[in-house]
Every structure is written in structure tokens, then in C-alpha cells.
Write a structure and sequence with these properties.
By secondary structure, this protein is an alpha/beta fold. It contains 16 helices and 22 strands. Strand 18 (428-429), helix 13 (457-461) and strand 19 form a beta-alpha-beta unit. Helix 2 packs antiparallel against helix 3. The chain has helices at residues 25-41, 45-56, 62-78, 118-132, 181-184, 199-213, 232-244, 246-255, 275-287, 348-357, 376-383, 403-414, 457-461, 477-486, 498-504, 543-551; strands at 3-8, 21-24, 91-99, 102-105, 140-142, 148-150, 158-164, 172-179, 188-192, 221-229, 272-273, 300-310, 315-322, 328-334, 337-341, 369-372, 391-400, 428-429, 468-471, 489-492, 506-513, 522-536.
């Protein structure tokens, strides 16, 4: 792991003081701003290598390779610094370990920003990064138990600062994360018992939980599993750090023998890593057949399994993922300055190598079929002639709406009013785009999780709406039954390729309704050759269900 100095030692504070390390609050703000800017547009080399491995693995399915190539192309576009890697630029999370010999100068005479705490300084930097880099504002602030409003800043950030007394040079160590809602929603926590602690029971546990992950959180995943913990909080914090790759970074940096000691415990407990079970997790993930979104063997690219001490009456068990938009960055402040992990500024060699290896990867059951969306009835008739799993290229106008808009449509129906007329004439794509860069048609744009809209199936389809929907991941039996009843279709498009979709496939957009919802406003977009895959057809057949059935 390489680091880059982004703030010189001379800018850290007013003056160095003996064995202590003073840090100006304005430095913390700049440090956080630069970290979130970097991780929103670029990947570390290790992550690009994992995607290249999926593309070039002879065991990969045709669709595994297709997804990997598209994700690498997406990385090339995002690295230009205009369109972020993913439309869900995430909850901003900062984990920090502050040595007792480090102190913050928050009210210095020459301060550039007034702060009352490290948290406030770091939050200010996060806010600036989201405001100035076309990132998405996803955070809703409650005004009551049931009412809320978008903060329009993506704040607050989650900032956790831990006091430490590590050996070595005084330092302030950081892990910066941008965590999307889709992958957070896949976190599973179980209060199990000692009955889990044998190979047969644990294997059954893994098979059930990994299959349940589905593809909605944008694989290939990093899957983490943690068993034990002195409390639920310790278990889940270990899981969180495992999904980010922090334990790997801490182990590698400590083994390198530098002057800075990276924290490798949670609450004073060092997790036990179980590498043999990590291999089994990868095998089980491959055996699901779900693959990198549309069938194959690469549901997961990495796995981490950790064991913690436990109370004799408790056996906490958790599983979580990091999606293919793996946005995690470590950094530190020492006497030498402030340093951030280096990412790859130009991923083109990775993409070019993958594209050369998979020159025929765009094929799936033959060449993709082009569909004109100018008539929704004609489009449905065409889709009806193909099996689930078929690839299509959609061109025409599509309605963009997700959770908040669906809730408002539901409220209209409950008050006796009809659906807006626009819902009847277009396919509906569930998405919430990032902020639109100056001169661009739209910001980074990708699908959101489909099954969050499943409860609206009958309300919409019975009135002639949602007869073609586009999103990501699997849907419930409720939706599949409604598709069969009303002659509807659900198609998936690639999750995690938001910069690519915005730049290459969306040619126009306008806000139609509910502008107060921000990124969740109803919009109309024009697309050209948008790649989609038929997941659920008008006969009730389902692509993901067929994969699971074939493995039984």
C-alpha cells in the first residue's frame, strides 16, 4: 500500500511541541475533503485487479465477464473526476484512532475555520467534498417519527473518533468510507447459540445467508462474516471494518514495520482470522450461481471470516458486504504531514486488458435485441417473445422514480385520486441520480434495489402502470405473481456502472414531478442502447429463481 503526502508538516499546526503532535482543525477539514473526493472517483489497484481477474477467469460466465468489463470501463470514466463511480455516493463515514499524544488546535489565532471539535472539522470537510464534486445528497433528516426531509448536504456524516495509546511515533490514523444504502441493507445480524459452533451448522448457516444476499447490492462483493463478540456492537464494528478491508490494511502496514502502529483491535480484542473458512465462503458464493449480477460464479471477489470471544450465553453472528463500488481509503497524520492512500488515477490499462480478453463478452444468448420504447405495448409484445436472461438494448423515453415518488403515488390512490397520467406511458426505472455536472445531461446514474418497490405491485399494475420496470437485484414472489397476472416485465441493468450509463446511454432528461424530493424527484430520461436483461417475464418466469432451481 502506497501513501501520498497531501498536506506538508509545516501546515499541520502552529508549532510542533516536544513529543506531542498538534493538528490544526482546518487540516482535518481539508484531509476529509480530499479523502472523499479521491475515493468517490478512483479505486485502489487491488480492487481493479480483482475486477480484471473476474473478466479474465476462464471459469467466469459470459455475464460475469460482461459485468467486469463494464465496471472497469466505468472506472475509466469516473477517474476523469466529473462523474462519480456510483450514483449512490453513500453515507460518509470516518473512523479515526487518535493517539493520546495528538491534540487538536481548534481555536488557534491563525485558524482558517472555526471548529469546536474534531468531529465538526471532519464533517465540514465531508460537506465540502459532497457539495463541490457532483456527489449525491442521500441523507434524510427527521422532523418527527414519520416525517423527514433531505438535508440537501449529505450531512450529517458518521464520525467515530477512538482514543488510543499505540507504540511508535504519535499519529492520527483514519479510515474513510462512502457506504451506499444497497450494501448497508444487506447487513444481517443474528443472536445465535453455541449450536452454531460446529462445521456442519456453520456451513448451513453460510449457505442460507449467502444465497439470501442476492444481487441487489451490486456484486462482485467482498463478503465478511463475524462470529462472537462481547457485545452486539463489538461484533458489528468488526464486521464493518472487515467489509472495508481495514484489517488487511492494518496487518500489512504493521508487518511492514513502519514507525506508525495501526490499530488491530476492537475494544481491546484482536479478532481471529479464519482463512480456511474464507475459501469456503467464496466456494459457497460461487455455488449460488448468481454470479456478478446476471448469473455465473463471481458473486464474491473476496471473503473475510473473523472469530471473537463471546459470553457463554451469547453467540452473535453477522454477515455483510461491500459492493463493487468499493470506496474505502486509509490515511494518517504524523510529524511528517498528512498522508492518504494512493489510488489508480488512470485505470485504462486494466480496462483495455479485460476488453481484449473478452472481446465477445457483450453477447448473451446471442447478440442483444434492440427495443424501441416509443410504444410501451409494442415493447411488451416484443419482450414476450424471449426467455428470461435475454439481453436487450433499450432506446427511447423512460420514467425515473423510486421510493419517495412511489409513496406519493400510493397516497394519491388512498385519497381517491388517480395516478399521474405520465405513469401509464413509459417504463419505470428505479434510480436516484447524483448531482448533474455543469454542461452534462445528468449526473452519475444507476439502478436502485428493485424489491423496495414490490409492495406497490397491484396498486400500479392494476391501473396500467409499471408494466415494464428496470432496476437491480431479485424481486419477491409478490412482484412475480403480479407480472404474470397483468402481463408485466422486470428487467435488470448493471449496478455500479453509473458513470458509464450517464455518459454513454442517457441523452436527455427533465424533471416531471415532485422537484422537492431532490434526487428522488420524478424525471423523464431519453436513453440510447441501454443494456438490460430480462429477469421476470409476463408468464411469471424469473431468471434468478431459475438459477436457484437448477442448482437443487
Amino acid at each position: 500500500m502506497e501513501f501520498e503526502k497531501i498536506i506538508p508538516a509545516s501546515d499541520l499546526a502552529v508549532a510542533q511541541c516536544g513529543n506531542e503532535l498538534p493538528v490544526n482543525g482546518s487540516v482535518l477539514a481539508v484531509f476529509a475533503e480530499q479523502a472523499f473526493k479521491r475515493l468517490s472517483f478512483t479505486f485502489p489497484q487491488e480492487h481493479l485487479e480483482s475486477l480484471l481477474n473476474v473478466a479474465c477467469d476462464p471459469a467466469s460466465s459470459e455475464n460475469d465477464r460482461l459485468v467486469a468489463v463494464k465496471l472497469l470501463e466505468n472506472a475509466v470514466i469516473a477517474a476523469k473526476g466529473t462523474l462519480p463511480l456510483c450514483q449512490d455516493t453513500g453515507v460518509a463515514q470516518v473512523f479515526a484512532w487518535k493517539d493520546s499524544s495528538v491534540y487538536s488546535i481548534l481555536n488557534a489565532v491563525n485558524r482558517t475555520m472555526p471548529f469546536t471539535s474534531d468531529t465538526e472539522a471532519l464533517t465540514a470537510g465531508v460537506g465540502k467534498a459532497y457539495k463541490e464534486n457532483n456527489l449525491r445528497f442521500s441523507i434524510n433528516i427527521p422532523s418527527s417519527l414519520f416525517d423527514e426531509k433531505n438535508s440537501a448536504t449529505n450531512l450529517p456524516a458518521q464520525v467515530d473518533v477512538f482514543s488510543t495509546n499505540e507504540s511508535g511515533e504519535p499519529s492520527y490514523r483514519f479510515l474513510f468510507c462512502a457506504k451506499g444504502g444497497g450494501s448497508s441493507n444487506k447487513t444481517d445480524f443474528t443472536c445465535a447459540t453455541k449450536a452454531l459452533l460446529n462445521p456442519q451448522s456453520f456451513e448451513r448457516f453460510l449457505q442460507m445467508k449467502i444465497a439470501a444476499l442476492g444481487t441487489a447490492a451490486c456484486p462482485p462483493y467482498t463478503i465478511a462474516v463475524v462470529i462472537g463478540g462481547l457485545s452486539p456492537e463489538q461484533n458489528l464494528q468488526t464486521l464493518k471494518l472487515a467489509t472495508t478491508g481495514y484489517w488487511d490494511a492494518a496487518e500489512a502496514l504493521n508487518e511492514a514495520g513502519g514507525a506508525i502502529r495501526w490499530t488491530d483491535t476492537v475494544g481491546g480484542v484482536r479478532p481471529l482470522r479464519c482463512k480456511d473458512w474464507e475459501e469456503r465462503v467464496l466456494q459457497i458464493a460461487a455455488e449460488t450461481g448468481l454470479g456478478a449480477q446476471f448469473g455465473g460464479s463471481h458473486l464474491a471477489a473476496h471473503a473475510r471470516v473473523f472469530r471473537l470471544p463471546r459470553h457463554g450465553a451469547s453467540c452473535f453472528a453477522s454477515i455483510g458486504v461491500s459492493c463493487n463500488a468499493h470506496r474505502n481509503l486509509v490515511g494518517y497524520i504524523s510529524r511528517e504531514g498528512a498522508f492518504l492512500q494512493k489510488n489508480v488515477s488512470d485505470p485504462r490499462p486494466f480496462f483495455e486488458k479485460a476488453a481484449a480478453y473478452t472481446s465477445g463478452a457483450d453477447a448473451h444468448h446471442g447478440e442483444p435485441v434492440k427495443v424501441d420504447l416509443s410504444s410501451i405495448d409494442a415493447a411488451r409484445a416484443k419482450l414476450s417473445g424471449y426467455p428470461v436472461g435475454q439481453a436487450f438494448l433499450f432506446s427511447g423515453e423512460i420514467l425515473v422514480a423510486r421510493d419517495a415518488a412511489h409513496a406519493r403515488w400510493k397516497a394519491l390512490l388512498e385519497s381517491g385520486k388517480p395516478l399521474p397520467d405520465y405513469t401509464l406511458h413509459y417504463p419505470i426505472l428505479y434510480a436516484g441520480p447524483a448531482e448533474t455536472p455543469k454542461g452534462a445531461v445528468i449526473g452519475s446514474f444507476g439502478p436502485t434495489t428493485a424489491n423496495r418497490m414490490d409492495p406497490y405491485a397491484d396498486d400500479l399494475m392494476s391501473r396500467g402502470a409499471a408494466l415494464i420496470t428496470i432496476a437491480k437485484g431479485n424481486r419477491s414472489e409478490l412482484w412475480r405473481t403480479a407480472c404474470k397476472k397483468y402481463g408485466a416485465f422486470y428487467l435488470g441493468t448493471i449496478g455500479g456502472a453509473a458513470a458509464l450509463i450517464a455518459e454513454k446511454h442517457i441523452t436527455a432528461r427533465k424533471v416531471l414531478d415532485y422537484p422537492d424530493l431532490g434526487m428522488e424527484a420524478v424525471q423523464l430520461i431519453s436513453v440510447k442502447d441501454l443494456p438490460v436483461f430480462l429477469i421476470t417475464d409476463d408468464k411469471g418466469n424469473d431468471f434468478y429463481a431459475s438459477l436457484q432451481k437448477s442448482l437443487r
